[in-house]
């Protein structure tokens, strides 16, 4: 009986979360396009030192993109998983679709986690779900952009499966 109550409670909470979830905001700027997800979207992702989630504005995304363009080459010096027919993410940055998720760290700094994917056919899915792909080399990658310190970190480029 307790398991059934727990199951239906979890199911109820998930349904309420789905109903409360807002449609992400499409954004497009000079060399970028994607979707901003607010805190109503439950994402199974966290950042180091996470305190909570944060809503991001179009201006904050524009600022983050500027930081990314100026800092990506430094953090991507090893070009991990960017050979053998896979794109160099620094050179092809404008080709990627993005998904933006805001966080607050324990220092009170806003951090934008950006999920990147190459495949424009996934664009319709990207409006509703986090695009999570195993392997696929540099066609899929993500990075954190600290809007307070104006630094990028946690570059993760998918492997060559």
Description:
This protein has 161 residues and is of the alpha+beta class. It has one domain. Helices cover 25% and strands 29% of the residues. It contains three helices and seven strands. The protein has helices at residues 2-20, 58-75, 123-126; strands spanning 25-29, 32-37, 50-54, 97-105, 110-117, 140-146, 151-157. Strands 1, 2, 3, 4, 5, 6 and 7 form a seven-stranded mixed sheet that branches. It is globular and about 55 Å long.
Topology diagram in text:
Blueprint: H1 2-20, E1 25-29, E2 32-37, E3 50-54, H2 58-75, E4 97-105, E5 110-117, H3 123-126, E6 140-146, E7 151-157
Q: How would a crystallographer describe the biggest sheet?
A: 7 strands, mixed
Number of strands: 7
- Sequence stretches where pLDDT stays below 50 over 5 or more residues: none
Portion of residues within helices: 25-40%
Query: What value does the average pLDDT take?
Result: 89
Question: Structural class, judged by helices and strands?
Answer: alpha+beta
What proportion of the residues form beta strands (DSSP E)?
25-35%
Number of helices: 3
Oligomer classification: single chain
Indicate the overall shape.
globular
Count of the domains? 1
Alpha-carbon Rg, integer: 17 Å
In N-to-C order, the SSE pattern is HEEEHEEHEE
């Amino acid at each position: 009986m307790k398991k059934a109550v727990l199951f239906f409670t979890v199911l109820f909470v998930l349904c309420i979360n789905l109903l409360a979830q807002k449609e992400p905001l499409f954004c497009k700027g000079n060399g970028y396009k994607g979707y901003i997800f607010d805190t109503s979207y439950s994402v199974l992702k966290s950042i180091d030192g996470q305190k909570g989630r944060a809503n991001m504005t179009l201006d904050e995304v524009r600022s983050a993109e500027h930081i990314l363009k100026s800092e990506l080459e430094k953090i991507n010096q090893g070009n991990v998983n960017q050979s053998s027919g896979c794109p160099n993410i620094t050179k092809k940055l404008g080709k990627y679709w993005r998904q933006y998720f805001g966080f607050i760290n324990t220092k009170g700094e806003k951090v934008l986690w950006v999920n990147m994917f190459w495949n424009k056919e996934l664009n319709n899915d990207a409006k509703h779900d986090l695009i999570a792909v195993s392997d696929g080399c540099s066609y899929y990658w993500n990075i954190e952009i600290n809007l307070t310190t104006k630094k990028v970190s946690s570059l993760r480029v998918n492997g060559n499966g």
